[in-house]
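User: Can you predict the 3D structure for this chain?
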Amino acid sequence: MSRSAVIIKSNPYGLILNLDPDLPFDELCQAVAEKFRISANFFKNARLALTFRGRVLTKEQETRLVDEIVQNSSIHVLCIVDEEKESAEYYRKAVMHALENQKREDGQFYRGTLRSGQVLETETSIVVIGDVNPGAQIISKGNIVILGCCMGNIYAGASGNRNCFAAALTMKPMQVRIADKAARSAIVKKTDTGEYPVDPKIVFIKDDHLQMKSITNETLCEFLA
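Assistant: Here is the predicted structure, written as structure tokens:
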């Protein structure tokens, strides 16, 4: 099979695939698979936009070609860019937009109670709709918001971001940590089954110390200052 059936051009944010206009589509798919299998190490774990050039494709054909690329490499195809809009800046904007959408869609909410022994880790901020029982743990590189009772271990700003915070409708954690600052409770135990009143609190770093305060307009102004 001729290697000229598929020619790859790249910029920092995307790939342009020049496709043979006359090759039967099934053979073209094989050529794309072979091309990316050979180039797999070069594009390792890349997150890119993609443009097809050289022939008119249906949406189904575009999807099949994307599948061939993904299955034969570790590339993450974030979006397809129209041929008329090819420029490094347009690709950059398309990739940034796709990544933002992905962040909004992936792992932002957890519905249910985390029980002893369960660990929830996330690259983004997380909202838990439920309780975090003693012995459960949440680790987030962003903020943690618990719409329930927090009695487990919570770790916000796990990448070292001191501007992160943790908040809960009832804040009784065994341990709370923000970036490199941590505090442990001597009250809540792993066997705690007590019920606590709703008393929303937020934990954040202020003056190099962890602060736990009731959520009020005054507290939010202090946190944002």
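The CA atoms of residues 29 and 92 lie 27 Å apart. The chain has four helices and 15 strands.
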